[in-house]
Amino acid sequence: MFRIIIENYLKLFFILTPFFILSTFLSLTSKWTKHDRKALAVKVTIAITITTVILLIAGNAIFKLFGITVDSFRVGAGILLLLSSINLVKGNIETPNTETEDIAVVPLAIPVAVGPATVGTLLVMGAEITKYSEKILLFISLILSIVSLGILLYISNIIEKLLKQKGLNILIKLTGLILSAMSAQMILVGVANFLK
């Protein structure tokens, strides 16, 4: 049970692209006070939690509504995840520009943390699991990953001093490499199941 939680936790943590959202968070709040950054970190964490929980719950209903199989969606989500990972590795990511004061939901929660690739992956993960006990374990993993991300944002001032931008860029590229492996696995499983 503990192993399943850890495995899902690691997958979900990297799917949320924590170091990219941290880098974006720091750049968008460069002139903010420590107190304001911490308050924003809490709001972003809540927004991500609500969004991702809805996606996990709605997975099966969405597939039934549109008549899409889990495997076809798995391949599609895998391709989106692969494209996102390539952008992370190459550094071809645009930091969203916003003139609004409330940036917790848009752009930080959506689409920086919960972009198209994350949406697809969460829908697949939610639809794959049918047992109630396994769903509970998945939700525990999701909450743990979001809390970890929230802590990163909450202590962003400390991380910024320790890593600087160069350190964050290295972590972003490592995240991209991990996501590329996960996307390849998703695509291969979807194709293999389709061929059966």
Automatic annotation (TrEMBL):
Membrane topology per record: Multi-pass membrane protein
Main location: membrane
Assigned keywords, A-Z: Cell membrane, Membrane, Transmembrane, Transmembrane helix
GO cellular component, one term: plasma membrane
Transmembrane region(s): 12-28, 40-63, 75-93, 105-124, 136-159, 171-195
Domain of life where this protein originates: Bacteria
Subcellular localization, as worded in the UniProt entry: Cell membrane
Keyword Cell membrane belongs to the record: yes
Database matches in InterPro entries: Multi_antbiot-R_MarC
Family: Belongs to the UPF0056 (MarC) family.
Protein name: UPF0056 membrane protein
